[in-house]
Records
---
Amino acid sequence: MSINWFPGHMHKARKEIAEVMPEVDVIIEMIDARIPFSSENPLVPELRGDTPVIKVLNKADLADPEITALWVAHMEQEKGIRALPLTQQKPEDIKGLLTLCHAMLPERDRELRGVRAMIMGIPNVGKSTLINTLAGRIIAKTGNEAGVTKSQQRIKLDGNIILTDTPGFLWPKLSPAACGYRLAVTGAIKDTVIDYADIALFAAEYLLKAYPERLKHRYQLTDLPDTDMELLDAIAERRGCMRKGGVADLHKVSEILIHELRLGQLGPLTLETPEMVGKEKEEAEADELRKKAEKAEHDRQRQAKARKRYGK
């Protein structure tokens, strides 16, 4: 699956962030704890320079806690980065983010000069809800849909912190390819541009390997099928999503699986691990090198034919 979703307001957001970045003391990057790598924005390292970053692994209550711990350790290997799992269910922990902003700048006298923070993240990661919790009032518009925030705004917070909110934006190229699927499964990409059956089959294949017992319990299955399509067929039969002739309604059962996964009804789960992502990146880089080599060989043969044709 290839997902290309880079609306004009996202291009504008990237440009605006690049212009403001020199004035920022600390970046708060919100990512989805269920997909810590796929929900990271690869433009952030390019834009941040040496600016400290707090990576907020939001929706941690929906993620597998053991894998979340692996991701925290993995991220904090990089200098200037702190990783903080959070859930909207514990607003007192969210308030601790203000203290951490100051801790990232130990030499700063907060009385003389406040902290200028910028918060960024992909669509539908919960950024607006977190801002409202930090501010103690409704400031940012929220909604269970990708792309609610459309423009920058500055908010005065406790602790002499000025927070710049930015629109959620994706990036032009989603690589490795599985990242696009995971973003779609968790709702970061608008449902109007995805194929439910396509992403449900992706999710089913992963869940069969990573969380087989969850599937058995949720859908009351005695034995698990071997393939993703067979799993959807089994769920469709259990949930009454069958058409005439005993054929599963693929779209309807796909919606059921994806919606229940997003709501955490299959239990806390994570769709990627550091080890898995490392292998995917290696494969993607090797594939890119192979394509470049094939193109170079194709160009060489074309030039050789041209030289032969013209007697050179």
---
Amino acid sequence: MRILLVDDDDATRSALAEYLTLLGHAVSSCSDAMRALNLCRNHGFDMVLSDISMPGRTGIELVRDITALPGPTSPDVVLYTGHADLELAIGALRAGAYDYLTKPINLEELGAVLNRVAEHQSLLAENDRLTKQFDEEVAAATHDVQAELSRLRGLLAKQAGLDNVGFFSDAMWHVVAQARRYHDDRTLPILIQGETGVGKDIVAKLIHYGQEQTTLPFVDINCAALPANLFESELFGYEAGAFTGSATRGARGKIDLAKGGTLFLDEIGEIPVELQAKLLRVIEEKAFYRVGGLTKIKTDIRIIAATNLDLTERIKAGLFRSDLYYRLRVGSIVVPPLRHRQDDIIPLARMFLTAFSQKRGKSFSDIDIDAANVLHTHSWPGNVRELRNAMEWVSVMHDAQELRPKHIAGFFEGSDLIASPVPDTAPTLRRAPKRKPRPTDDDINAALLATSGNKTRAAQQLGISIRMLHYRLAAKRQDADPNAKA
């Protein structure tokens, strides 16, 4: 062991040091407690063997100082004195001493103490090693669990259709923020409104799954796809023998399947009028009857509905109950059409194009300026769904590094929608097939000169959008000085 010997008596210190060295221990020595404490700070000892009565600080004070030193382990301190005083021994042990000896020191007793100290220090070292190993193994296991959790969340997101979703405009981030707030309160019915193809189902899943990717069930039903005579049994389920052709054991409905989770009623505006009162009762009472059943069944579900119809007009026409409408829209989200979210078009197109290209082994990775202008100028009546379909079509029909106007033109051929104007609420952009020939740099310089540098008027004169003019000017500056900032 590494032993520090502390005694102000030179003869005693020399004799003990010689004896301990003969036993095979590495011995350091000093004559006072302060020097001993400094040595303990700077060197690692397994044991300190010290006299109690010394000038300055006593051996008991040295024990207290050593036990207060920082570090996972400290040396065992054994004190000795020429006074066989029981109270002094008790005081030494209370101060933290490992053992107590009296002078003259019995060498057999000292040898036994040395063996106990060596065993104790070995146990401390093993405990420290195992603790470190345990911490490392826990950290490794934690990392593995986190990696597995991340993998499972990715699989869940993929299964839920949320693995390839992008939000880029302020309008859509506002929608996402609303969805996250609604996620926290499962008792709140929510109505999502927006045109066909804007992604109402994605918003419903964002509300249900939240940021933590819950594993509770998400059950959807397309109200427009079911005939009225099947809708009730599909929604509520039915008891055995409820009607001709029914299963002998009955069947659970979508409300049953969604227990504890979310029931998503897509195209709620198409629900048969005669069933709207029953749906309202489910929302208000959290209970329902199966078709042919007499027992009221309690349910715990979140109701999310979506529609592309103007429900207020349906109410006026007697096709939708006003009480159901106002009950559903306690939580309300309106998803704006793609033509009103110009900042989403190019990032979404690039995301879809890249994903489809990777799937089919194609090279598309970016969109050039002219193709971007074509995408911006289309009114996208089919919204995000139409944009996604366009990028998938391109990935099937073409292959290049950049998407160019010639690649996308074929998707619009034969469609009456290609020339449909963008509404006044969206930026005014000309349709690519109708626009003037692409202006040259000289044309742009002449237009800016003629309008005294007014970019808006210059863009109108050139027959291009102000956005396109900024693109061209930035590209021109970049060509002139590659180090210039666009």
